[in-house]
Amino acid sequence: MSTDYRPSDYAWIRELLDYPRALEGRLGFFEDTSEVPIPADPIERVIFQERAKAAIRKVAQNRGHLLLVGRPGTGKSLLAEMFEEVLDRSLGDYLRPRESIVAFPGKDRNHVRIAYETPETLDRALAEIRRAVETAQGSVEEFSLEDTGRAVRRVRRGMLVGGLAAAGLGFFFPAAWIAAGLAGIGAVFLYLQEVQIRVQERIQRDNGGAGRVDLKQLADQIPEVLYDPRQERALMARVAEPSARNMKGGFRHDPYQSGNLQTPCHKRAFLGAHATSPILYIDELKTLVRTGYMAELLEVMQNRKYILEGGRQSGSGAADRSENPLRAENILIACCNYDTLAALQQEGDGAFLSRIEDKGEIVHMESAVPETPQTIRAVAQYVAQEVRRLGEEFRRCWGEVLAAEGPAGVRRRSEHIFGRRLPEEFRLEARPLSRAAVMEIVRELRCRASDGKLSAILRPINGIVLAAEFAALFENAPRVEPPHVRRALEEHLSLEVGLARELLEHRKYLKKYIAALSDSIGYVVGLAVIHSAASGQMFGQPLPIHGQVTAGGADKMTAPGRMGEIAKAAAQNVRASIKRVLDALGAAGVGYEMHVEYIQAHDGVEGDSASVAMDIALVSDFIRQPVNPRYGVTGSLTGDIILAVGGVAEKIRSILDPDLGMEGACVPWLNKHDIEPLLVNAEAEFIRRGDVPGIRIYRGAERGLPFDIFFCKTKYNAYEILMGIDREALEARMAERIRRDLASLARRPAAG
């Protein structure tokens, strides 16, 4: 009898059982994380990203640009911060600006002139200018209308004298009274004019005098300091949403446009990050594409200088600009995800990417790395760094309380936060993780990746370490142990995974309901996985599938519901695989309509990992052979061969709960290394059913609640485990069904 397995295959499966011991040996250099050394080099504190770290060192050496591309949580922002720290230590005193930037009035009211000068020289020059303005202001004569008033008084007195003389003559010549009256009226008018002059003089003196108004034009000529390097020490500017205003600068709006009080444009100028920061950090390039600043950024990167412009279509500042350019010799660090990278490749035929590669490097961040002794040591280092960081956070948040009230005060105040009684010996300090607890972290990283790799998406692990620390704090345990980590994993779930867990409870009862009402013919428990877009976390869940084959219908496959393109293609591949066997057995004249249903998969299905489950469901219905409802199955079917799929460890973990009633699973042979993390801190042994090798994991105490995992190379291996039938018996049953269908079709009356 032929077999798909060789003797060496069984030896390879037995070797999987050595994984926990090998992992513990790789972590044997410490008992807990307090003994793990943390590198002094800040770049080496970032783990798993060896290519990115090498690129950072090379780019830092020649002051080039850097683009980090990868999924969220892989360490892009952390590497950018390390890049700044390394440059600050090595070249910070040369990179940091040493000249002030000052704006002078330009050739007209809409232009400014930019100059660079050392701060000390500029301080002396501005001090001299201000002293000169103050001297000019003090030398202005006091405002006076005395000369005007004196002339008015002289005329008024003359008119009074003339009026009196005319009145004397009126006794002899009556017509002279007319002249006397006119002179009196004129004198009164001039008196009122004299009073008005005195009032105007008082008003002008109270308001500072016309001399100060005249000095405004002189004060407006004083240069404006736009940037003083003594007030800015950071090398890197973090720009959340790049635009011409915050990257290049511009001119502020003038609220005093009317009344001849306009603020000159050099006093309304302000600078952006290009002119003031040696390093520019754009955390998400998607914002750069959205704001439309890409073309201007490329121009600045090309010319390394730019003209300061108002940048508004209308209003104050629209016509303002600098007569000479500002320097912009920036080092650019940018981060993006893969969807943004695709947009950048199309934007201007990839002009931005070309500019980065011209004097820098584009680095693809690793989302998973092979498990090696070096990467295992890196995980221990990463956990030790998180413990140290958490300890610093505790001291920062509670240092004053601890100094003033001691540990008892911290405990008393913490009880109000957590709403529970804490142990008398409670100490708010970070606990080191034991070696076994670090193994649980490694186990989690392995489960979140495939092909014997560790997930490099570490940001969610920070929350797990924090939750495990608090679990140990509440127990006042001296170290964080595996139960604390497992409890943290139960509590710390991403949004998608939290919803999936609720769905799992529904699927649990749905599975029991179907098993109670059906004979298990055509029903298979497939295994699916949900990915968290934000954290990269995966969560497996059982996916009940029902298959049905009807003779004498249209020779096609139907799979209703919200299925993605890959899932639809997988269904057609399953149909082709079964059809090939049927035709070989003489079913060419029979039309078989195949129907597959993903039971209550309301959110849709995508991927090809359920193709083996679909095949088993259809074959089970075709030969009327029950499928073991206590076993799940996953795998991608190509012909008769089962290929690897993703998320196998998470899929198995989703059905390990004894309450679900599952007793085993069939997984692709190529995914055998994905079972290794499930063996950490668990008792297991090698098993074999027929030719198919497997591993039995005991979920209960004293070797209780066994769970069997079988490694299948072909679909016939899965038939043997799930339906208890070998290839020869299967083909015989299929041939018998075909004969019955042909005979039934022959007895049907001819149409018409």
Describe the structure.
The structure is a single chain. The protein has 752 residues and is α/β, with parallel strands linked by helices. The protein folds into 4 domains: 30-42 and 368-491, Helicase, Ruva Protein, domain 3 (Orthogonal Bundle), CATH 1.10.8.60; 90-134 and 219-364, P-loop containing nucleotide triphosphate hydrolases (Rossmann fold, 3-Layer(aba) Sandwich); 144-194; 498-512 and 520-747, Ribosomal Protein S5, domain 2 (2-Layer Sandwich). The chain is 47% helix and 17% strand. The chain is built from 24 helices and 26 strands. The chain has a 9-stranded mixed sheet, sandwiched between helices. A hairpin with a 6-residue loop joins strand 16 (523-531) and strand 17 (538-551). Helix 5 (119-138) packs antiparallel against helix 8 (209-219), helix 17 (459-475) packs across helix 18 and helix 20 (565-584) runs parallel beside helix 21. The chain is elongated. The two termini are 50 Å apart. Residues 209-213 have low confidence and may be disordered.
Radius of gyration from the alpha-carbon trace, in angstroms: 42 Å
Query: How many domain modules?
Result: 4
Cα-to-Cα separation, first versus last residue? 50 Å
Low-confidence segments, ≥5 residues, pLDDT <50?
209-213
Helix content: 40-55%
- In terms of DSSP E residues, the strand content is 15-25%
The count of strands amounts to 26
Which CATH class of the largest domain? Alpha Beta
- Which word captures the global form? elongated
Q: Number of helical segments?
A: 24
List key phrases describing it.
752 residues; alpha/beta; nine-stranded mixed sheet; five-stranded parallel sheet; 24 helices; 26 strands; 47% helix
